[in-house]
Write a structure and sequence with these properties.
single chain; 1066 residues; mainly alpha; Neurobeachin, Chain: A, domain 1; three-stranded antiparallel β-sheet; 13 strands; 44% helix; elongated; phosphatidylinositol 3-kinase regulator activity; BEACH_dom_sf; BEACH_dom
């Protein structure tokens, strides 16, 4: 209210609030002025006082330039929000075929398989996958709620956005080409102020569905067909918005406006698309995702350590105060980096950072030929073995020339240490430990040469310190870096990334076994050619350095994302189906969520998986399993599938027991290390709050809201005392619905019981379905993986599949065609609104009137012919069903009462509808409207229109057409001879006799176009359209050839304003 008064300068008396809806009474010129940059000046009524305006007079009393508009205000929170979900490509639904029975079965099988796999993954493997947790939970709310709301407005309406501050229009941002759904309340434009967003909607409907069920319950209670059509329209709207990545929000019956023709117009809750992450939630999420330890002193890290530590210099004392089992567990679960864990192992083994005799060691992981890794080092073999070769190692192990047989002399010798850091040590030190004489050329010139020359392992400095490449000697140049590196700092960054890569992480435990583990002794050391001299020489001299074996059991592998252990199931179908899908469904996507998929909404793949494994056939199978296109197989595909073998082919490197093996390895290793039964001290949070779960919860809530709406419509008499609960909270509203169903389940019509049981998960169906009773609990609501009907979780896409109508909602077949009519009428109404907005009368009144009339005529002609085409399909399904005709007739009446389409509607639409209604109902329904046409004529009967428009256009819209013998015969048959003689003989005689009617309100007598003798037929015929006299006995007049327009006109009509009308041949 304050925003409307302060920023829009609307007086309080011009504002009315009813049941939470704000309605303004405003002048059309004031609305137009809001789209012009400059100060705002509200226009007060020149005749009525503010108190009279507050009494809500009729629009006729206000004047033709006054209208009423609905207003919705959304306050800004000025906080960061989660980005919107990316929508999927929306195809033309009227041309999109429905699923066949075989395709539906395939959809059920594929989707249930996908959901069951996902459920098992989340239960058994997802808690281990800390890397995926990091990717999912690390999505930050870094977009302002203002930007999100602007995007929501563009996606939902595509309207103009007017920025206003303190009564001044600052800017007008044009809208986009997005077409709003026909069941959304049409929007004029949106306004953004400093504190809120305001949407202005045209008042196309005066009453809400809440008012209908409370004050006029008989309108819907007479038959279930009308109520079901309301639900059908809601489902169409839900499906469209979900495909756009939006939700309708917590709407109630008060937000659904009902028109006389049973078309609904919904005011959505736009703010429910803005997911604000409050500071308390951010802290809670961070706390939930921390790795919590029992009795863990001094070190607590989150999974973000992986990325943060990778860019740090590293701490040489890392892990010195912690036990090896805790550090190992943290590494296994991706809580600390490879670099940090290796540092901790070096410290555990007594190696001292900076001590040449026992400096820290790290593995060489690549030969530096590529910037992004590649040519990876074999971590199952020591660097000594790779450098010297197996033959030489066998000689030193078996040869009698050496005192003790061994394979490896040292992991990192003192000489190698000084060579590595030769650029940073003085010449005197180097001459003492490396070579007595100073010969700079004897030192490797580049890091590649150093790698190839050295039989020892790497040092931490090459992963953390770029200064080691810079020489302090004048005659010894800097250590060269690979050609792909731009600087030492760049090389250090890429080298560190290689150490932390998935490839190295997956195999690093082998290197640990060679350097610190069980492969340093026993048969494992002999087999790996890793017998170390310092461990087998039986020396008795005291020393403070050397190789130390920390473990006697195989070290567990680090958990990394696996292409075979992921949320998306592997492909179990032939590859040719995939190729067809890729060609036909390119670009189709939908929002991803953490809940179960209904199968019709395609879920997008994580970008990281797509980028790293594009060549994998498994990744392609994910596209197949997510795509609705995979459900739409052609007959050729089905035949080919039958002819091919159904053998499940597994990849060669797939190990189905890898997870079990890993668990066993971890437990055996930890039991040996800690000398006690291993019990995990890491808390894995399966229920982390993340972006995808927020989106999924919004979708689930949408289905619950739909269930509540259905119950409130069909059991409206049970909610009259409790309907205000919906204003308190949705949980209260849901509880009222469930309690009502528990007591009055038998009162709910059978036609919606299955749908309500599915949406709200309540037991109101026969026990044979084994549906579990679900009560409202504090825990997050989730649909079962496979519902009690054997279907995937419910969705609007699923409810709108015709084959499932009998199991879910018994929608009649004609609903589809009736909805097409509703959609077309809204599209044409949108065209008329745009035309009225673009053509302004103050520019050139004559030209404006002529242009506007020509366009309105063509729009009306196309609209009527398109409706006639859909009406033909619709009536073929309807037959003589009473409730069906009650839904159809109001739309035809609406078109027949519009001035520009009245004559055309009578000509094209009257007969097919009257044929279905019968004489009695036809007379009650259409007699008054047709009599008005005969008595008052059409707008084209005006001589002004006849003078400025081509005669071909004039002839189509004149009342003369209704005096045609063919139409008069239809009136006689459809209304009955008695009614025809009572009502139509007089206007017919007057027309034939040239009777001069006095036009009420005019001071002169004028000839009406009903006077057939005064009609100039010659010009009309020259224009290509023949208008026959009612006295013409040509038998060809009894036959019709209706040429229908394909749909709404969106191109320039001025190129084709005069078309040949062959509907009547003379």
């Amino acid at each position: 209210m304050d925003v409307i008064k302060k920023d829009l300068l609307v007086p309080a008396k011009y504002i009315k609030i009813t049941d939470g809806q704000i309605c303004l009474t405003v002048h059309k010129s004031w609305l137009t002025s809001l789209l012009t940059i400059g100060p705002i000046s509200f226009i007060n009524h020149d005749k009525l006082t503010e108190d009279e305006i507050a009494a809500q007079p009729m629009l006729e009393e206000l004047g033709s330039n006054w209208i009423r508009v609905y207003v919705k205000v959304y306050e800004k929170e000025n906080k960061y929000a989660i980005p919107l979900v990316r929508g999927r490509h929306i195809t033309n639904r009227s041309t999109q075929p429905d699923l066949t029975f075989s395709q539906l079965l395939h959809y059920v099988v594929e989707t249930n398989y996908q959901n069951l796999w996902k459920e098992c993954y989340k239960k058994y493997y997802n808690p281990w996958n800390c890397v995926e947790h990091k990717d999912q939970c690390n999505i930050t709310a870094n977009v302002s709620d203002t930007s999100i709301m602007q995007e929501v407005l563009q996606k939902m309406y595509g309207c103009s956005l007017v920025q206003i501050q303190n009564g001044l229009v600052l800017s007008v941002l044009p809208g986009v080409t997005t077409e709003a759904h026909c069941n959304l309340l049409p929007i004029l434009f949106a306004i953004e102020t400093a504190s809120a967003f305001v949407t202005l909607h045209e008042q196309t409907a005066e009453y809400s569905l809440r008012e209908c069920v409370m004050y006029s319950p008989a309108v819907l209670s007479m038959s279930h067909g009308k109520s079901l059509f309301l639900v059908y329209q809601l489902l169409q709207l839900y499906r469209d918005l979900h495909d756009r990545g939006l939700v309708l929000g917590e709407i109630t019956l008060s937000d659904i406006l009902l028109m006389d023709n049973f078309t609904i117009q919904v005011l959505p809750k736009l703010s429910d698309n803005v997911y604000i992450k409050s500071e308390s939630q951010v802290h809670k999420v961070s706390a939930n995702h921390e790795i919590k330890w029992k009795n863990f002193s001094g070190y607590k890290k989150t999974i973000d350590v992986i990325s943060s530590s990778a860019m740090s210099q590293g701490n040489p004392r890392f892990g010195t105060n912690e036990s090896i089992e805790k550090l190992c567990e943290m590494w296994v679960y991706n809580c600390i980096s490879n670099y940090d864990y290796l540092t901790a192992l070096n410290n555990m083994a007594g190696r001292r950072y900076g001590d040449p005799s026992c400096h820290h060691v790290m593995p060489w992981v690549t030969d530096f030929t590529s910037r992004c890794g590649g040519n990876w080092r074999d971590l199952t073999k020591s660097k000594f073995r790779l450098n010297k070769g197996d033959r030489q190692l066998d000689l030193t192990f078996d040869s009698q020339s050496v005192a003790v047989g061994h394979h490896v002399s040292d992991v990192l010798s003192e000489i190698t240490y000084y060579v590595y850091l030769s650029r940073r040590y003085d010449k005197s030190v180097l001459c003492k430990h490396v070579r007595p004489q100073w010969v700079p050329g004897e030192y490797p010139a580049s890091i590649q040469r150093l790698h190839d020359w050295s039989p020892d392992e790497c040092i931490p400095q090459f992963f953390s310190d770029p200064n080691v490449f810079k020489s302090i000697h004048e005659d010894l140049p800097d250590l060269e870096i690979p050609a792909w590196a731009t600087s030492p700092e760049d090389f250090i960054e890429k080298h560190r990334e290689a150490l932390e890569s998935f490839y190295v992480s997956e195999r690093l435990h082998h290197w640990i076994d060679l350097t610190f583990g069980y492969k340093l002794s026993g048969s494992a050391a002999v087999k790996s050619k890793n017998v170390c001299l310092q461990l087998v020489d039986n020396h008795t001299g005291l020393t403070n350095s050397g190789v130390v074996q920390l473990f006697t059991q195989p070290h567990p592998q680090k958990i990394i994302p696996s292409p075979y252990w992921c949320k998306i199931p592997p492909r179990l179908r032939s590859s040719f189906v995939l190729n067809k899908h890729k060609n036909d469904q390119c670009g189709n996507r939908a929002s991803d969520d953490e809940g179960h998929s209904s199968g019709f909404e395609e879920e997008e793949l994580p970008v990281s998986i797509l980028s790293t494994s594009k060549s994998s056939p498994l990744v392609l199978s994910r596209l197949l399993s997510r795509s609705r296109g995979s459900l739409l197989s052609t007959e050729d595909v089905i035949k080919q599938e039958k002819s091919t073998s159904q053998t499940i082919i597994l990849p060669k490197d797939y190990n189905p027991v890898a997870g079990i093996t890993h668990v066993e390895t971890v437990h055996i290793f930890m039991n040996k290390v800690s000398s006690q039964v291993y019990k995990s001290e890491i808390e894995l949070h399966e229920s982390c709050i993340n972006y995808k779960q927020i989106v999924a919860s919004g979708r689930i809530k949408e289905q619950q809201i739909l269930g509540c709406l259905i119950v409130e419509i069909f059991l409206s008499n049970k909610f009259r005392a409790t309907w205000n609960m919906e204003k308190v909270s949705f949980s209260k509203r849901l509880a009222v619905c469930l309690n009502t169903l528990k007591i009055s389940a038998d009162s709910l019509p059978k036609c919606v019981r299955h749908a309500v049981a599915l949406l709200l998960q309540v037991d109101i169906v026969p026990k044979s379905y084994n549906a579990d009773t679900t009560e409202v609990m504090d825990t997050p609501f989730r649909y079962p993986t496979v519902t009690y009907m054997g279907l995937p979780p419910p969705s609007a896409h699923q409810f709108l599949q015709p084959i499932l109508f009998g199991s879910l909602l018994p929608f009649s077949k004609y609903y589809k065609y009736l909805f097409n009519i509703v959609e077309m009428l809204q599209e044409y109404s949108s065209l008329v609104r745009e035309l009225n907005f673009m053509v302004k009368s103050e520019d050139d009144p004559d030209f404006t009137f002529k242009t506007k009339t020509r366009f309105l005529c063509k729009i009306s002609e196309c609209k009527v012919k398109a409706i006639a085409r859909e009406l033909e399909h619709l009536l073929s399904h309807v037959g003589i069903a009473r409730e069906a005709l009650e839904l159809i007739v109001p739309h035809i009446q609406q078109v027949m009462e519009e001035p520009y389409s009245a004559v055309l509607a009578a000509w094209y639409l009257f007969d097919p509808v009257a044929k279905a209604l019968g004489p009695k109902d036809t007379a009650e329904t259409f007699l008054t409207s047709i009599m008005k046409l005969y008595e008052n004529g059409s707008f084209m009967d005006n001589s002004l229109c006849a003078d400025i428009l081509p005669s071909g256009i004039v002839a189509k819209f004149r009342t003369t057409r209704l005096y045609h013998r063919n139409f008069l015969l239809k009136l006689t048959v459809r209304m009955g001879l008695r009614r025809y003689l009572e009502n139509f003989i007089t206007p017919l005689v007057e027309a034939v006799g040239g009777y001069r009617d006095y036009i009420q309100g005019s001071s002169v007598y004028t000839h009406k176009t009903g006077n057939l003798k005064s009609c100039d037929l010659n010009d009309i015929c020259n224009e290509g359209e023949g208008i026959l006299s009612p006295l013409d006995e040509d038998s060809s007049a009894g036959s019709e050839q209706i040429s229908l327009s394909p749909g709404p006109i969106t191109t320039d009509y001025t190129h084709n304003l005069i078309l040949t009308d062959n509907d009547v041949e003379g």
